[in-house]
Amino acid sequence: MRIANPMMSVPGAMQALLGLSEAAEKTGLDKNFLELVYLRVSLINSCGVCIDYHSKLLRKANETDERVYSVAGWRDVPYYTDAEKAAFALAEEMTHVHVSDDVWNEAAKHWNEAQLAGLTVAISAINVWNRLNVATQQKVA
């Protein structure tokens, strides 16, 4: 590690970031669904800490092996709903900081405005976690 995890050392940072995720969950989005999105974004960002953490949470929540272990290849497997696929596409484009109208419109078909707002907050929050962990070279415990 380069430094201690900033989420632990900066007063109020942990509560603030956890608050974003909790707010997203209050929009009616399923917790396991959000965990899959967090896992997908963490894979894109190569955040080993978050990949390990969210994979374990999904397995503990009885998510199937197929859905946990194939999230990186979501386009090529039959395990995800159209809504989940739309969320993965949105998560990928948000992570790369460019969201096309096609991807946004597809996601908007599957959730109401509050849920779509919650999903964008959740994707943004996991990107912050990933970037902090990768930049400071946090390790899996």
Structure characterization notes:
The chain is mostly helical. It has helices at residues 6-9, 13-25, 31-44, 48-60, 65-69, 82-95, 101-108, 113-135. It is built from 8 helices and no strands. The longest helix is centred in the last third of the chain and has 23 residues, at 113-135. The radius of gyration is 15 Å and the shape is globular.
Secondary-structure map:
Elements: H1 6-9, H2 13-25, H3 31-44, H4 48-60, H5 65-69, H6 82-95, H7 101-108, H8 113-135
Helix pairs in contact: 2-8, 3-4, 3-6, 3-8, 6-7, 6-8
Mean pLDDT: 96
Count of helical segments? 8
Uncertain regions spanning at least 5 consecutive residues:
none
Q: Gyration radius, to the nearest Å?
A: 15 Å
Helix content: 55-70%
Structural class: mainly alpha
Classify the beta-strand content into a percent band: under 5%
Overall 3D form: globular
What's this entry about, in short?
This protein is mainly α and 141 residues long. It has helices at 6-9, 13-25, 31-44, 48-60, 65-69, 82-95, 101-108, 113-135.
Main attributes of the structure:
8 helices, mainly alpha, single chain, globular, 141 residues
